[in-house]
Design a protein that fits this description.
about 240 residues; alpha/beta; single chain; 2-enoyl-CoA Hydratase, Chain A, domain 1; 10 strands
């Protein structure tokens, strides 16, 4: 039996590959547990600076595996209360989604939890929660509208229809669309660019961007200025 999640590290970049291609990388308990463990490995390993998440085969992730929905624990796969959005948030290193194919419902939510997305020309996206009758739980209703705007999010979630890679680019859901064979090369190139920065300051900038999620613009600006003052005092005490 193949490992449902593959994990490798090269030149400070971790690659997490969802590896159930025979099921279009549908989410079962073992895949979730492997994903969670991989994210925790990234958080623990100080040599890792960036993460790339992708899928094996023709799909990125087709969402929950409905064949095991009533047989496996997909909501607490390790029995420790860990949940996908919390583990993504706890990982203080940039996470790039390299979307190689379909990203559907729970798989789409997984993608939305990444910091940004690079898409193959073969990628497509759909929120089918309303069609399959499963309640969103990993951020779909909030992260999708943040990415594409409320009206487009409503259209996607109400109709449950797919959008292709070019539409995803036009709507701001993905940062780039590249030829399929260039996807991982481009994702690793971007990861390499990120690795050239200061790990400490990269974490600071990432935290400052995320801080805006829960406060007003005025509060976020004040928070940045306050952190800047602390930085000056600690790094340039004579300034």
């Amino acid at each position: 039996m193949n490992d449902p999640v593959l994990f490798s590290v090269e030149n400070h970049v971790a690659v997490i590959t969802l590896n159930r291609p025979e099921r279009r990388n549908a989410i079962n308990q073992a895949l979730l547990a492997g994903l969670y463990e991989s994210l925790e490995n990234v958080s623990r390993d100080k040599s890792i600076r960036v993460v790339v998440i992708t899928g094996e085969g023709k799909s990125f992730c087709s969402g929950l595996d409905l064949a095991v929905l009533d047989k496996e624990n997909l909501f607490d796969p390790r029995g420790d209360g860990s949940d996908m959005p919390d583990l993504f948030a706890a990982c203080k290193k940039p996470i790039i989604g390299a979307i190689n194919g379909h990203a559907i419902t729970g798989g789409f939510e997984l993608a939305l939890n990444c910091d940004f997305l690079i898409a193959s020309e073969r990628a497509s996206f759909a929120d089918t929660h309303a069609r399959v009758g499963i309640h969103p739980g990993w951020g779909m209703t909030q992260l999708l509208q943040e990415a594409v705007g409320r009206r487009r999010a409503r259209q996607m979630s109400f109709t449950c229809r797919f959008i292709n890679a070019q539409t995803a680019l036009d709507w701001g859901l993905v940062n780039e669309v590249v030829p399929h064979e260039n996807l991982m090369g481009r994702a690793m190139e971007i990861a390499g660019d990120i690795c050239e920065g200061s790990p400490e300051m990269l974490g600071v900038v990432r935290d400052l961007i995320s801080y805006r999620d829960t406060v007003s613009m005025a509060d976020a600006l004040a928070h940045e200025r306050a952190r800047f003052a602390v930085f000056l005092r600690s790094h340039f005490p004579g300034s």
